[in-house]
């Protein structure tokens, strides 16, 4: 039974994983559908939701029972995620659906979305990616800091330029209003712009504002490709290193062998 | 005749390919133009459309006749694409243009767009690209899963934040409405945002919503460059391997040697 | 004199280049300013425009005179660009500013914008970039073809989905209108979306349209990073090859030496 | 005391740095909050602002006192940034809050945003990034020039196409107006589009305009990935060189050897 639930090698374990995957996807689907107008109190969704909650409860109990160290599992990352997947259902019963508790209810139900995290457990490739992200964490912090500094400076600059220009040109001020109502708003604009998302809900409207904004976009864009290339370079090196780590010639110490290599490419000596 | 149609090496085969390319492009042009207001029932387009359908029919019949195994061709990927290119024209005749069948008609006509797939047959470089995409399929699945998980969590979070904030601030609720009407809508927003498309039809309107949204954008952006670098790294490694293919081992025919390799990594024999 | 104009090595040549650069930038500035409301018939701009035209005329004549093969220069890429820089000024005189010829006039004046091409002549790095683009031309064609095929298919699909959904749901049809008025419009949407520009002037409005659109965006985004990585890989290889091309050990034929290498890193023999 | 302030190695230096970091972040937070409606004249913010100004003044004085060469520090980059962090506070006192000086006041207060630059001093990784940006400066200039040329040409083209098409089609001209009111406006559009920001405040509205725009977007996008790959390649090469620095020649101390090098490329001496 331990094999079926925790390992994916056996035939039964495979089917268990596929079933769980479908249950997770269905759960996400129902949680989302519940918020769509007209489906909020749909009976079928309630039934499906409860069926899934019971299913996940059985899975949780089984994992607890099968596990050699139940407490350690319960306190592990996956244990908490598994608990969060079922708790909201039972908490709803406790609180009841009295209208006064609606807000609390909503927040609790949000937790069900973490069921999507269960997907990770099934992906082998994800481990490699997590390792890659973990290795690149310093670069990501630097990247975020660069963006933060750039966002603060360009946001403040644009806020002053736009409000100043609207003050100078009294005619325009009457017709339209600056979208840059405050520095946080301007920083929101800078974030949305520098990441090239560009919603268009906050845009410069004065001529000077547009010129400075175009200059900032170009500058920001050419600055942002440097940390991006940085992270890419890190990934490429990491991949290279990973490949190298597995093998190294015991005779001539040459590195960079293919993972399937039997003989050293430089000295031709046999490798284990 | 087989040479002319299936091979591009001969002079006649070249011209056949160029003619086919022009016919495909013209076909796409007419299919598109048909939907533009005022061109829908244009006689010239109908004539051109029929001329192209007949041309593609001749091509299909010739391919069937020339092919050594007609059935195998008919059931192959290209055979089905070729059939889909001509079928809608004849099906339209069968159904007639009675107004009640308009919807079915429209769906059938959509199939003609697959003619554009015929372009692939002409591109040699495309094979290399298909191989590259095929090799990177695991990475793409991981990438899509990462985005899916991120979209689900950030979408749900933003939906709750925006609706909560609009509930808290009753004044704003009257003036405007939250764009985040449901979780699927919020997930649509998250998808559009994380891929940096940023239409701007769904945007956060509350202050807290904007702050969380800016944080999510930055986080999403810095997370997304990691899988992007991952895929790039995969492509670069793939290319390196492909380039090395030229120096194959003369004994065991193993490929993928490093450019400076003296000995085959598989059999250990000396290479020039 | 030939040295001054065609070479940048001498002191005078340097100053000539800097002067020309400023003249080009000023010219672009005035051409742009002319179209801004209220500056159209500004006398100062007209004077500056004529001064620059005369300056560029002198430059053109000097280049013709100095050149060893005037005709060859006149018919070369740069010769034509230089001619296009001055021709519109004189053609305006010929046509006159009669209101009937305004449209022709406007088209001719557009040609002045090609003056910006003169910038290229001054950039050494640009040659390296041109070479890189030229080497990657096959990849770019493949990339554009992939995008074209994807744009055609997803555009057609979305057009049918959106118009169909608006037909099915009669209530919505009254309130709003689908942005997907025709297949070319839908292809415009697909282009704007797949390149992650995302203006937001054409957006899906039905629920099904949004779901399919989100799926297409994700698919498109994950497909587009493959050719992007492809081109990056090409650039990285090209750079590697360029560095390698300069040097190769005459004894052991090892490649990949640094450009400043005096000795082979493998066998230690002296390299020229 | 010098150690505490200028070095981060000691225990006290660490805490000093963390305290300073929090002070900078709090300062940015208050400067931003001040511009939000309803918080402008909040007493608490004024108090916090003054507390931070006094804190930064103490830091500045301490640095001046501790520094071995006070004048050199005062005129250095960090000295000026540190001065700009405190000057606005005292200048505000000098000018007073008379309404006539409001504009000058606002400009002075903008300077406080440069406090965010202080963050850089704390980041070790940032040095590596600065070096990388500095190495790639030529590429960035080329990249910006390419974008500038592309922006100028495509902007001018679109301006003429859109205004011409609106002239040709008199019906449309009445209903809507072209967003391309001038060439600078069109260049703003081109910048926003080519960097894939895509606000959507300036969009083509005529059919021809949309077709040309879609073509320009595709062309621009496929051209822009080349310089992007270029910069990435530069970063990757730079990283490779940096990684190799560890294996320096024991004789001539040359750095940047390949990882498999047996002989120094400069002096030819054997390396372990």
TrEMBL record, chains A, B, C, D:
Keyword terms: Ion channel, Ion transport, Membrane, Potassium, Potassium channel, Potassium transport, Transmembrane, Transmembrane helix, Transport, Voltage-gated channel
Membrane association type: Multi-pass membrane protein
Ion transport domain segment(s): 14-229
BP GO terms, sorted: action potential
One Gene Ontology MF term: voltage-gated potassium channel activity
Subcellular location(s) of the protein: Membrane
InterPro entries: Ion_trans_dom (IPR005821), VG_K_chnl (IPR028325), Volt_channel_dom_sf (IPR027359)
Transmembrane segments: 12-32, 44-62, 140-161, 211-233
Listed GO CC annotations: voltage-gated potassium channel complex
Primary location: membrane
A Pfam cross-reference name: Ion_trans
PANTHER family: POTASSIUM VOLTAGE-GATED CHANNEL PROTEIN SHAB (PTHR11537:SF254), VOLTAGE-GATED POTASSIUM CHANNEL (PTHR11537)
Protein name per the record: Cyclic nucleotide-gated potassium channel
Species of origin: Novipirellula artificiosorum
Lineage: Bacteria, Pseudomonadati, Planctomycetota, Planctomycetia, Pirellulales
């Amino acid at each position: 039974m331990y094999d079926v639930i925790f390992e994916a090698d056996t035939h039964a374990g495979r089917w268990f994983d596929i079933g769980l995957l479908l249950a997770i996807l269905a759960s996400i689907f129902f949680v989302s559908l519940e918020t769509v107008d007209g489906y909020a109190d749909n009976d079928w969704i309630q039934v499906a939701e409860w069926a899934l909650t019971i299913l996940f409860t059985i899975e949780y109990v089984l994992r607890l029972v099968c596990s050699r160290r139940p407490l350690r599992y319960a306190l592990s990352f996956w244990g908490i995620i598994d608990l969060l997947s079922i708790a909201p259902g039972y908490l709803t019963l406790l609180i009841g659906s009295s209208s006064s508790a609606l807000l609390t209810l909503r927040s609790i139900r949000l937790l069900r979305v973490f069921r999507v995290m269960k997907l990770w457990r099934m992906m082998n490739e994800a481990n490699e990616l997590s390792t890659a992200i973990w290795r690149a964490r310093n670069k990501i912090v630097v990247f975020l800091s660069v963006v933060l500094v750039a966002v603060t400076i360009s946001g403040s600059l644009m806020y002053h330029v736009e409000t100043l220009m609207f003050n100078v040109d009294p005619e325009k001020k009457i017709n339209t209003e600056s979208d840059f109502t405050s520095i946080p708003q301007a920083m929101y604009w800078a974030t949305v712009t520098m990441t090239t998302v560009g919603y268009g809900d906050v845009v410069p409207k004065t001529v000077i504002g547009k010129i400075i904004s175009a200059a900032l976009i170009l500058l920001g864009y050419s600055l942002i490709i440097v940390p991006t290339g940085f992270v890419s370079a890190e990934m490429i090196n990491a991949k290279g290193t990973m490949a190298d780590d597995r093998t190294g010639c015991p005779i001539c110490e040459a590195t960079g062998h293919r993972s399937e290599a039997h003989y050293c490419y430089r000295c031709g000596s046999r490798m284990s």
